[in-house]
Amino acid sequence: MRAVLLGPPGAGKGTQAARLSVRLGVPAISTGDIFRVNVKGGTALGLTAREFMDAGHLVPDEVTNAMVRDRLAQDDAAEGFLLDGYPRNPEQAVELDSMLAELGSGLDVAIEITANFDVVTDRLLKRAQVEGRADDTEPVIRKRLDVYANSTAPLTAFYAGRGLLVQVDGLGGIDEVTDRLVAAVAA
Ligand code: B4P
Questions:
Q1: In-domain check, residue 128
Q2: How far is CA 68 from its chain centroid?
């Protein structure tokens, strides 16, 4: 199974990717998590990424694409993967196609977790109280939602046009959403 997971910030991509990865037996690859590990470790990649993440912007495509290219070439991704948070704009989607073509494979499904902006804002503000992420403040969340609407939301039509899109309602309890995702992927 080669899948991408789409949806607005706070829709539950990271939360559900971890669970689906176990159910499907493929690695969950989160670009956001890889960036955060690098920020924490103070690497050159982390220093670059931090400036964009803290402002709610996308990290530049050349940085993100190179990182994903390296990750997909690793052995554990050879038989499948679940990409969480990538692609996030049409340029990244085209780049992903070319990476997979080079590896002799292609995407099986694009799963979009849907949730309205009021609900996701509440979830992210709650997470801010627990984790204190620099990008979970109200003005940065607003910016991230703008970026999502302008850059990422067009991917819904992009994948629908190729017959790859599956949409799953992200409202409700975490277990409930997982069950919906598993059922949607099985179908
Ligand atoms: P991400 O790490 O992808 O962060 P996110 O979109 O906020 O989603 P996340 O996965 O963390 O949250 P989730 O919805 O699971 O990106 C962060 C930043 O990294 C971006 O802004 C960008 O700067 C950079 N970046 C990442 N990928 C990039 C790319 N491809 N190109 C360029 N830049 C990139 O969960 C949110 C909260 O909701 C959690 O607290 C969770 O517990 C809760 N929750 C989840 N499901 C719930 C449910 N059903 N009910 C109640 N709460 C729920």
A1: yes
A2: 12
Q: Count up the domains in the chain and report the number.
A: 1
Which residues neighbour 60 within 8 Å (Cβ) at sequence distance 6 or greater?
Answer: 48, 52
Total residue length of the chain: 187
Nearest CA to ligand 1 atom 52: 123
Residue 187 domain flag: no
Domain with residue 18: its CATH number is: 3.40.50.300
d(CA 160, CA 140): 29
Q: State in Å: Cα 93 to ligand 1 middle.
A: 18
37 pocket-lining for ligand 1 (C-beta < 6 Å): no
Query: What is the spatial distance between Cα 5 and Cα 28, in angstroms, rounded to a whole number?
Result: 10
Q: How far is CA 73 from CA 1, 57, 109, in A?
A: 16, 26, 19
> Radius of gyration over alpha carbons of the chain, in Å?
16
Domain of 47, in residue numbers: 2-182
Q: pLDDT for 30-64, tens place per residue?
A: 999 999 999 999 999 999 999 999 999 999 999 99
Residues catalogued as catalytic: 13, 88, 127, 133, 144
3-state helix, strand, coil in the chain (%, to 5): 60, 10, 25
Write the pLDDT tens digit of every residue in 74-118. Answer: 999 999 999 999 999 999 999 999 999 999 999 999 999 999 999
Q: 58: which DSSP letter? A: P
Helix (H) or strand (E) holding 39: helix 31-41
